[in-house]
Each structure stands twice: as C-alpha cells, then as structure tokens.
Specification:
By secondary structure, the protein is α+β, with helices and mostly antiparallel strands. It folds into 2 domains: about 20-210 and about 270-320, 4-Layer Sandwich (CNF1/YfiH-like putative cysteine hydrolases); about 215-245, no CATH class. The chain has 7 helices and 17 strands. It has a 6-stranded mixed β-sheet. The longest helix has 14 residues, at about 90-100. It is globular and about 60 Å long. The protein starts with about 25 loop residues before the first strand and ends with a strand.
Length: about 325
C-alpha cells in the first residue's frame, strides 16, 4: 500500500503545483496493482460483489509532452480518454491495463459523452454508443460504469441493500444542476434505493485551494442554493450581487491597463457535492471525500486547468 498526501492547505503558497509527498488519512488507500497506482475508497472494499477504482496518471503507454515550457520532459502516462493529442490504440491499451488491474477483464467498460449536464442514464446492458450525459447507474452485474475527469469531481455511489451503483461526473455546471442528487433520485425510482443506505465516494478533483472562479460562476451558485456561500472563499457576496468592485477606477490613480485584477473566489466543489448528497438524505458518515487536489499533484493526476493539454483519469464501479 502506498501513502497519500493530506489535502493542500488553503494558503497562497498551496496554490502552486507541487510534488506528491506526505501521508494521508483513511478511508482512502493508493495501491500498486499490476504496475498501476489505483486509488480506492476503503469502505467500498468490504463488499465482495463490488469492484471500483480511481485511476491515476503514471505508468501507461501514452506519451505526453509537457505543455509547460519550463518542463521539457516527455512522460509515459495512463491516459484513459480519447484526446486529440493521443493515439486511439494507446488509449485502448491503457484502458485494457486499467481494467485488468481491477480484475474486471470480463466486464465491458461503459462510458459517457460527458456534456456537463444533469442527465443520468439507467442501463442494464452495454449501449451501442456512449450516451450523452454525466451519470450512469445500474443494478445489473457484469458492467463497469466509468466517468472521465481531469479536475472535475468523480462520484461513485453504492446501494448495498439493493446492489445498485452509480458513477457521476460533476464539474461546476453539473454541481449547479445537482447531478449527484438527481442520479440518486433515479436510483430511488428505478431500484427502490433508500438514501440512508447509500455510500458515496467523492474522488480526487481540483480543490478549493486551486479552483479560482469569477462572478459568472458565483452568481450561478448563489441563484441555485441558499448555502452556496459556505462553499466559497473570497468576496462571495459582492460577486453574487453583481457589484462593481472598482466603480471609480480613477480613484486608484493608476494608469490605464494597470487596474488591479477583478476579485475572484475559490470554490470547493467537493464540499458542494457532499452537501447536495446530504440534502438528499445520504448520511454524512457515509460520504467519503478524497482530500487530494488534482492541480496540486502533477505526478499523480492530470489537471486540465494546470496543463490544458493533458490526459483523463477514469473512476469506475461495477457489480461483479
């Protein structure tokens, strides 16, 4: 078992990318499996009928040239998304290795055409084409549900009473649209899931330490949730109200083009999704949040905001 670092602190210094070092707390573990590093939620591992895992960046066959001009290295990475810069056969091999490491080689991988929506699909067999949406749920065995991320928040749900599972992709738009709660609602309708029975694993994604957003995002959250302020660090009220932070710029006595940048807030997407699940009656003690920030750990995770040209991780779950 490998050690994990604790969450990055909410300081200016922590907003710089840095190496992955230190020791984390349970309920998460990072395992070396068949040469790959796979993150697991320990509470999920007690179900012998369940397989799951959150992929990481190292040890694939894809070749990624760093987009950072200060970094001239070329690295081999486990890119699991069909990105423009990668070759399809390499992504297929990475997916084969990942599924093999999970011990799920007989389970077809079911993916989505993710569109940052509130659309959740219930499936009982592999679809001919990946459906458009941002959540998959099933009670059928033999399917490996997958979502792809590179800063957005992956969420896996388990209903152990009815043996039903879901995989959810939640960026800021999906969070505003309450995709996690709506996917849970679909499980209630289709599988008679009771939220009190559900376990939720909120996996690695960009942390509040590094996720800076502007007024457009703040306003969306403020309009949709009365508790949104608690998910932001910074001048939430001013940005949510649309106030001009510098209505008389001439008072600063600064030449044109040298005005201070507009104020921004830092958003905690993981806390927001945990709150949405709690509001949907999932017990807080059954919500397990990874403190790992994808932006802060370039040696372990892809981050679109950090790199732009980057790969994709996969978060998967299935009933054996």
């Amino acid at each position: 078992m490998l050690s994990l670092s604790k969450a990055c602190s909410k300081t200016r210094e922590s907003r710089r990318a840095r190496s992955f070092t230190g020791a984390p707390a349970p309920p998460w573990r990072l395992r070396n499996v068949s040469g790959l590093q796979i993150l697991e939620s320990l509470p999920f591992t007690r179900f012998n009928w369940l397989t799951h895992g959150f992929s990481t960046r190292p040890r694939g066959v894809s070749v990624l040239d760093s987009s950072d001009p200060r970094n001239t290295r070329t690295e081999k990475v486990l890119n699991l998304g069909y990105t423009d810069w990668d070759r399809r056969e390499r992504v297929d091999e990475n997916r084969r290795r990942f599924v093999h490491a999970l011990g799920a080689t007989e389970m077809p991988l079911v993916t989505l055409r993710q569109i940052h929506s509130d659309v959740a699909h219930i499936i009982s067999a592999p679809p001919a084409e990946p459906p458009k949406g941002d959540a998959l749920a099933t009670s059928a065995s033999g399917l490996l549900l997958a979502v792809q991320t590179a800063d957005c928040i992956p969420i896996l749900l388990v209903d152990p009473r009815h043996r039903a599972v879901a995989a959810i992709h939640s960026g800021w738009r999906g969070t505003v649209a309450r995709i996690a709660a709506k996917a849970l609602g679909r499980m209630q309708m289709e599988f008679a899931t009771k939220p009190a029975d559900v376990l939720a694993a909120i996996g690695p994604g960009i942390g509040q330490c590094c996720y800076e957003v502007g007024p457009d995002v703040v306003k969306e959250f403020a309009a949709q949730s009365p508790q949104a302020r608690s998910w932001f660090e910074g001048p939430f009220d001013a940005l949510a109200s649309g106030e001009d932070p510098n209505p008389l710029p001439w008072l600063t006595m600064m030449p044109p083009g040298h005005q201070p940048p507009p104020p921004r807030c830092h958003l905690d997407l993981k806390a927001a999704n945990a709150a949405l699940l709690t509001d949907a009656s999932v017990s807080p003690k059954n919500i397990f949040v990874s403190e790992l920030c994808t932006f802060c750990h370039p040696d372990l995770f892809f981050s679109y905001r950090r790199e732009r040209t980057t790969g994709r991780m996969m978060s998967v779950i299935g009933i054996i």
